[in-house]
Amino acid sequence: MADDDTDEGADSPTDAGYYQAEADASERIPAPAPKQTWLWVVLSRWMLRLEGWLRSHGGRGLRIGLRVFWGAVAIVGVALLFGPVINPPLTLDDITQSASTVTDRWIARNFAADYQITRNAQGELVAHVTENISATFPDGTDESGIQRVLATEYQSHALNPSNVHATLDGTAVEVGVARRADQETLTIEGPGQLQGDHQFVLQYDLENLAYSTTDTATGQATELLRWDVFGPSWPQGFAGLDVKVTIAKELDDRLIRQPRGNLAWTLLSAGQWLSPEPSTAGSTDVTYHFSNDQNIPPHAQAAFSMSFEPGTFSMPAPTPLYFVQVWGPLAPLIFLALTLLLALAARAVAWSDARGRPWFVAQSDPPKDITARMAAQIIQSSAALELADALASAQGVKAKATKHDRLIAAARVAERTGRIGDRPRALRKYLTAPERGGQLTAGLRRIPRGFVRDLFIAAPIALTFVQWGLVRQLSYQTTLAVVWWPVAFVLVSSVIALIVLVIALTARPLTRRGALVKQYLLGIGVYADRTKLLDRDVTSDRVLPYAVLLAPPREAGEKTATLIENELGDPTATKGWRTGDFLTGPRLIIRALAVLVVASAIGAAAALPYPFPRSPDYLSYSGDIPGTLDTSVSAMDAVATLSRSADQHAHLDVTEKLTVAFSDEGSQVPQFSQEWPSVLNGQSLGMTVTSVTLDGAAIPFATEQRSGANGGRDDGAGTLLMHTMLRTVTTGSHAVQISYSLQSAAVAAQATAGEPGTQAGQVVDRVRWAALLDGWESDQQWGDHPVPSPMRVSFRLSDELAALATDAGWISLDTTPENYQDWTDSVLPFGALADESDAGQTTESSTSADCSQTHVLDLKSDANDSLPFDVTADDLGAGAVFPAGTFAGPSESTMRLVQVESALPIVAVLALAALGLGLGVVGIVLGAARRRRAFAAGPVRDAVWWLAPASALAATILFVWATSDMPADDLTFIPLALGSVAALLASAAGLILTRRSRAVKSRRPRKSTPDVAD
Question: What number is the average pLDDT over the span 967-974?
Fold first, then answer.
């Protein structure tokens, strides 16, 4: 990977001879070669050999050819990214439009498939398949047979189609086979063109149709045989379907539930749980059967599914094609990762600086033809470049006055050298200095051109396009495995590609001559250290500009400033050292704060709860839990008992008795789910489900805590979800009983206006039990019409607690405010329902016995199928308010924290908008008045240029996030929107009015004021 240009000049008499410092052994300073890790050494040697081999086997032509190759790869990536989708899935339009051409080829008058499922000697599943296809060829068609497409890869298994035989109208015919990567097309043809009805019989064997998976009903491992009898492609319509699946009795005993048959076309589907066919005496097989006698358009799916116990079949290892399909898209990332290792190795070894001599000596003279600015580039000293240049400039004049002025300028440079605020400006000047490129023309550094460098430049660009193109293409395909790579891996590969590009494009190692110069400069550093050059009161030493490059920048600056002050006898020589582009502490803080404000706004939008309540989205009502879609409740009787435990916590025991109808129309095992609040005001209620029974027998169930930072209701956060995990298919109506308890049912809350015995805002202990969450009456699980009957809710509490309660009743809302967003939680006092005009047939009763009170609400719809608004406006249940301290457990601090978290986004939007608006107005006023502070680089201008736009942007980010689900009539939107818009406009106007082109030119700056640069 050597440079294309030779480095012969490094050994010329004028250069190498000059730097050939002779010295006694005692004066020599060792310059050992840098030690590299064995990995970098090995990889670098491999690359050097590869570079040498490529150069020996091809010159410019090979190099151009490789570039063309990577260009072609990039073009492929661009085509994948922006071109058409390869093998796109059929759309609904494709399927429906194919019905118009169904008679162009042939129609399956009847399709009968017979599957014999067995196990071979290795325990693997083998399916012997016989298909009887009654095909009709309409007049005018030019067809001599039919085609069947079989899958050869399924769920990572090779299906290995074998023993393929076929007959046409009872006569054996040859079967043509065309193989693809994951499909096999079988062609059955007659002797000529076919017309009318013909009978095709196709026989073949498939292996390993079952695969290991997780049962959606129980969450446990299972071996699933789910197979579409039509295969990957079935572009024909058909008028009749008959599917039989026969398994041995020993396999039938390992079924965990009934098999299911299903027929689907586009969005329409129908299925049934299959029962075994009557068997003949002595038969050891069990047959399941489903059929259809209706006309079905092309591209239909007919599938059967069987779930077996784990270990029923021996599972083969995944096929190579599966690994290619799943992990193949990672190949670009793997190649890029390897390329990164090679690039790092090249930078450390093959592209490292050339070796000088094994030793160097102290030098007291400046290097020949190497300026201080060039020396700064050679030894990569960005912070002290300006100081070295200023000292060299001062030494380059003889006029006393000029020399004095330049020493003053050098003293000011020295005062800021190495400071944090000077680093950005110093780095910018270092990177833009003409000497940076001049090193190449002077032969001090080289560009390591070659085949490998071309690879490091071309491969990252091309493979990044390919990676993004693959993401786009695979987004249209079925996911083969849960591999989180489309976003994370592609971003990682893009970052790696960028790093490799930077390494390849910025590699500028020192040549032999450059290495000798660097050693000479190091010798000056030794001389300066030995002679305490920076501590002497002299600036005329010609090696001083080079010496400051080799000392720590801040130390060099401080010593040089002292040296100049002592030489001039002027302790104020460094006065006015700050330039306009020097970042003082306040300016650094302002800029850092601007970045932090925007980053914090983005983080807050991702982490904090929404400040406005969103529409409840309870999972138990969504139907997303497998098996709950076709389950309905016809009756419920829920009883809750409130007591005070020995540790003074509010303890609530609940028993729900329900009549649940399980339908057999769904494709999943019927299940039942319930969801209750488990967190209020950020405080856990300590909810646990103790038992679930079906017809008196315990059944398995699972619970899931759906918690959120809001501690409340948004998106189901703060709820406990329970769902059954029935293994076998249960149909019809059954008695379900659920028992659960709340170990700490009371939470700290603020009393609302109008609550008896309290003042608005007063902290109280609130008990709120919701038997059903808001929206239950319109959920299909609970039956929209009619309402379950009976629908009874009972709330019991001791006389002692009843006497302590300042308010108790059925959960309701205070609808006094005109804006429904301002409605607050309240209760309808026990016994008050009879006074409500919309009570209808709903009744309530209260009884007292055994030192306790029982309140019963019996919900019934009226003649208009309506329920009383007061008790169904929110959750269905009961609540009570007690003085603070009645129970142990309520946490006022947690409640306050939740309130602060909810209000924080609104406060943040207003505060940031106010900050952006205020700073923007300051910029507008100062800019319009042509005040110098508005144009001079400093904290004021930085506040206008940096902090004002950042605050406005952060306010806008939080505003968009916070109001994304805000109710349309919420008046809070107006001040938030006005504040954000005003901040954006004011910050933009301030930025425009304080730009440098508007600076006042009529006023001359003071002599001590340096030119403003930014």
Answer: 76
The letter for the amino acid at 438 is G
636-674 in b/e form (b: 16+ CB < 10 A) is bbbbbbbbbeeeebbbbbbbbbbbbbbeeebbebbbbbb
- pTM of the full structure: 0.77
Strand partners, 880: 767, 808
Helices 331-345 and 38-57 sit at what angle, rounded to 10 degrees?
100
Q: Tens digit of pLDDT for each residue in 507-540?
A: 999 999 999 999 999 999 999 999 999 888 788 8
CB-count burial class (<10 Å; 0-12, 13-18, 19+) for 465: buried
Q: What pLDDT, on a 0 to 100 scale, did the predictor assign at position 1002?
A: 44
Integer Cα distance of 572 and 537 in angstroms: 16
Using pLDDT thresholds of 50, 70 and 90, give the confidence band for residue 6.
very low
Of the pLDDT bands very low, low, confident and very high (cuts 50, 70, 90), residue 127 is: very high
Q: For position 479, what pLDDT does the model report?
A: 59
Name 77's Cβ contacts closer than 8 Å, sequence gap at least 6.
Answer: 462, 463, 464, 465, 466, 467, 468, 469
Instruction: Round to the nearest angstrom and report the end-to-end CA distance of the chain.
Output: 41
Percentage of the residues of the chain whose pLDDT score is greater than 90: 55
> What backbone phi and psi angles, to 5 degrees, belong to 560?
-70, -40
pLDDT of 89: 66
**What number is the average pLDDT over the span 809-832?**
84
d(CA 516, CA 354): 9
Assess contact for 539 and 563: CB atoms under 8 A.
yes
**Confidence tier at 99 by pLDDT (50, 70, 90):** low
Instruction: Identify which of 934, 939, 916, 946 has the alpha carbon closest to the alpha carbon of residue 995.
Output: 934
Residues whose CB is less than 8 angstroms from the CB of residue 708 and which lie 6 or more positions away in sequence, other chains included: 609, 679, 714, 715, 717, 718
DSSP 533: G
What residues contact 633, with CB distance under 8 A and at least 6 apart? 658, 659, 660, 661, 781, 782, 783, 788
The alpha carbon of residue 203 and the mean position of all alpha carbons in its chain are separated, in whole angstroms, by: 48
Pairing mode of beta strands 732-742, 301-308: unpaired
Q: Which residues contact 582 (CB under 8 A, 6 or more apart)?
A: 416, 419, 421, 422, 425
Containing H/E element for 549?
helix 544-550
Q: What pLDDT shows up at residue 25?
A: 67
**E strand or H helix at 423, and its extent?**
helix 423-432
* For the ranges 90-104, 603-617, 623-637, the one whose mean pLDDT is highest: 623-637
* Residue 221: partners with Cβ closer than 8 Å, 6 or more residues away: 212, 213, 214, 215, 310
Task: Name the burial class of residue 202, with classes exposed (0-12), middle (13-18) and buried (19+) by CB atoms within 10 angstroms of its CB.
Answer: buried
Q: Specify the higher pLDDT residue, 753 or 721.
A: 721
Q: What are the φ and ψ backbone dihedral angles of 662, each rounded to 5 degrees?
A: -100, 120
Residue 614's pLDDT band (boundaries 50, 70, 90)?
A: low
Return the DSSP state at 348.
I
Long-range contacts of 654-658 (CB under 8 A, 24+ apart): 654/738, 654/739, 654/740, 654/741, 654/742, 654/769, 654/771, 655/737, 655/738, 655/739, 656/737, 656/738, 656/739, 656/740, 656/771, 657/735, 657/736, 657/737, 658/633, 658/735, 658/736, 658/737, 658/738
Helix H segments across 785-891? 799-804, 869-872
Q: What value, to the nearest 5°, has the Cα angle with vertex 930 and ends 924 and 935?
A: 80
Q: Apex CA 825: angle with CA 819 and CA 831, to 5°?
A: 115
Q: Are 439 and 430 in contact (CB under 8 A)?
A: no
CB atoms within 10 A of CB 229: 21
| Type and span of the H or E element at 202 | strand 196-207
Identify the pLDDT of residue 973.
86
Please choose, from the candidates 332, 70, 314, the residue with its C-alpha nearest in 3D space to the C-alpha of residue 212.
Answer: 314
Residue 416 binned pLDDT confidence (cut-offs 50, 70, 90): very high
Residue 819 pLDDT more than 80?
A: no
